[in-house]
Amino acid sequence: MMDSQLLKIEKLNVFHGSSHTLQDIDVSMGNKPKAILGRNGMGKTTLCSALVGLTKMASGHVFLERHDISLFPPEQRAKAGIGYVPQGRRMFRSLSVLEHLKLVERKNTNWPIDRIFSIFPRLAERKSNMGDRLSGGEQQMLAISRALMLDPKLMIMDEPTEGLAPTIVDDVTELLLSLQAEGIGLLLVEQNISVALEAAEDILIMVNGRIINEVKADTLKDNPEMQQEYLGITFSD
Amino acid sequence: MKFFFIVFFNGLTLAALYFIAACGFTLIFGLMRTVNMAHGALLLLGAYVGYEVVEITGLWTVGIIAGGLTSAIVGAAIQAYILGRYQGDELRQTLITIAISIIMADLMLWAWGGLTYQISLPEMLLGGVRLPILNVGYSSVRLTLMAMAAVTGILLWLLIAKTKLGIIIRAGVDDREMLQALGFETKKIFVIVFAIGGMLTGMAGVITGSALSIAPGTDMQFLLSSLVVVIVGGMGSIGGAALGALLIGMAEQYGLAYAPTYGVVFTFVIMIAVLAIRPQGLLGRSEK
């Protein structure tokens, strides 16, 4: 399992009408988490959505553990091992917390409901609350749990810390780090540069629908000029 | 005063019938946003098949099962082979179901002619009871109808609120794409829902054909009533369908009894008022 290839994206192109949203995306990753950083509107969310199959790919290939899943509809990609934590969490508003978990509960999962509740006691306390009657942090816990219960090989997370209070951001970051210990790959899209730098060693920089650079987190951390150039923001400890 | 109560009970009976007829319609709309304009045709088809089966077997229960099954199969086939291709394209789906309803109506006219049929009831339902206090006679069929409406409503509510399938259906109503991304084959789920909706509709047809009668035109009559009921009550809500059916049933009966000339107007006044004040329906949820 050391350096096996978990995800490979080859020359992925996506169009929205006449605009070329994703241009020849090439990404390859193993079990080590990678983060994609970029400003708003650069195509990060479209990339996530194309990977889970909700946005139509115009051309290119996606391989999960060397199996070509490019033609798979979303439900088959989920079954093949892609877990998706979407931007804005996308809770089901007529389902309670417990029903969210029952929906995806399966026999012999590594993540039975009891285990989820022991990791997130907040969810156990709120189990009869409706999905949209939760705080942002609780929704995020539930969105992550919902994806985990499918026993994914790869988690695709789109801005999991968006709109969360700073203390909750730390909790989520810790959780992201623990995924690696569980042998689950992580492709993280973030606006929050400090979360990305902490959760991933490799950072992909996305500008105008292209991956223009791949750098080590440490390199980017110590290089304010690079941060300014690619992301228009600087981060310092 | 006695007259007032008799009208009340008639309204209740009609409401029960409207509710049973609207259940399948609101279920299908609730999940798939498909306005199934072939709803009336499915109801009439179920009724005709139910009639034939009751004539042959003499068993009313077998008739209602046969009517339900036929409409379930036809409904599932419509979704699987025709509507499924246009998922998400609601306008086109609606137009297609209008076409299907016209084709089905003509085929049924060809097969069963323009006669009026009534499905014979089991003997135990033929009599009547004398209601206490008011001291008016009331036929058992009508009481049975109300019991059936209650049972249908409760079973459907249990299905939606308490079963795994219900959880999946509700999740699909909320966010179809997210449900797919969690590994659910929504196409298959849609066919199942169409089958359940079709079954309820076909059974409603047999019940209609027993309580009233059926003829060409019954399809449009019940499509219209179901549309009005779910618009007033709120599309996709079972409680809403019950409330809508009650309001419309009462309005029609009281209108007919006290202001016969304007009887029909009341129904549409209610609908317009609801659309003006609460467009999502009385118990409906507004879109995000």
Structure in words:
The complex is a heterodimer of chains A (237) and B (288). Chain A is globular. Chain A has one domain: P-loop containing nucleotide triphosphate hydrolases (Rossmann fold, 3-Layer(aba) Sandwich), CATH 3.40.50.300. A six-stranded mixed sheet of chain A has the order 6-7-8-3-9-10, with helices on both faces. In chain A, strands 2-1-4-5 form a four-stranded antiparallel sheet, with helices on one face. Chain A has helices at residues 44-52, 74-80, 97-104, 113-119, 121-125, 136-148, 166-181, 193-199, 217-221, 224-231, and strands spanning 7-16, 19-29, 34-37, 59-64, 67-68, 82-85, 154-158, 185-190, 202-207, 210-216. The longest helix of chain A has 16 residues, at 166-181. Chain A contains ten helices and ten strands. In chain A, a hairpin with a 2-residue loop joins strand 9 and strand 10 (210-216). With 237 residues, chain A is an alpha/beta fold. Chain B has one domain. Helix content of chain B is 74%, strand content 2%. Chain B has a two-stranded antiparallel ribbon. In chain B, a hairpin with a 6-residue loop joins strand 1 (128-130) and strand 2 (137-139). In chain B, helix 1 (2-32) packs parallel to helix 5 and helix 2 (39-57) packs antiparallel against helix 3 (60-82). Classes of the chains: A alpha/beta (237), B mainly alpha (288). Chains A and B meet through helix 2 and helix 3 of A and helix 6 and helix 7 of B.
